[in-house]
Amino acid sequence: MQPVTLTTARLVLDAATLDDVDRITEYCRDPAFHRFMPTPWPYEREHAIGFVTEYIAGGWRDDREFTWAIRVGTGEPLLGAVGLRREENGGANLGFWMGAPHRGNGYMPEAAHAAIEWGFSSLSLPSVRWEAVVGNDASRSVAERLGFRYTGIAPGEAPGRDGRPVDSWHAELVAGASRERKDGWPT
User: Which residues pair with 98 in a beta bridge?
Assistant: First the structure.
């Protein structure tokens, strides 16, 4: 599949390019990535090049993972990324990150909502799952705002840096379900 551009009231979600590599490298060196994300550490420029040219491009090409750069307008600098990765059950897993200078502006819930709705309508996904390392309150807040139903703590899909399972929060959003906040989230 060719990359698809999505727009929201404030954002453009489009393909990351090599012009985004330096910004991706900068953002992925944030200590929060070391703590909560399975990204390489230390994060180097070549990791960002691979992210753009292999991971993102390959995901679209193979119709298995759909990742967008988040921007405030066409041609504007990258703020973060959001993506949907197909799962064997026919659903998808939502992943996202936002560069530190852009957190707290409501960009991620807006971008993730657009990606999820695209997945439900264009891919006919029955559901979207989310998970984050326990303690990643920023990610939890986004999933909660999007109307995900919290399903508990279990080992995450990605192992920790030491190779061992990492306790992660899990949640699910079913196609057609209410997007209102659900009770039961950890505080």
Answer: 80
Retrieve residue 96's tokens.
Answer: 């996202």
Residue 78 is encoded by which pair of tokens?
């990258």
Q: Cα dist. 122→118, 119, 145 in Å?
A: 5, 5, 22
**Given the structure tokens 């960002």, which residue do they identify?**
48
Answer for the pair 131, 157: CB distance below 8 angstroms, yes or no. yes
pLDDT in tens, 45-54: 999 999 999 9
pTM equals 0.95
- Cα maximum dimension of the chain: 42
- List phi, psi (to 5°) of 86: -60, 145
CATH architecture of 6-174: 3-Layer(aba) Sandwich (3.40)
Length reported for the chain: 187
> Beta partners for 65?
85
What does the pLDDT look like over 125-179, one tens digit per residue? 999 999 999 999 999 999 999 999 999 999 999 888 888 999 999 999 999 999 9
φ and ψ at 173, to 5 degrees? -125, 120
Q: Quick check: 146 and 109 in contact, CB under 8 A?
A: yes
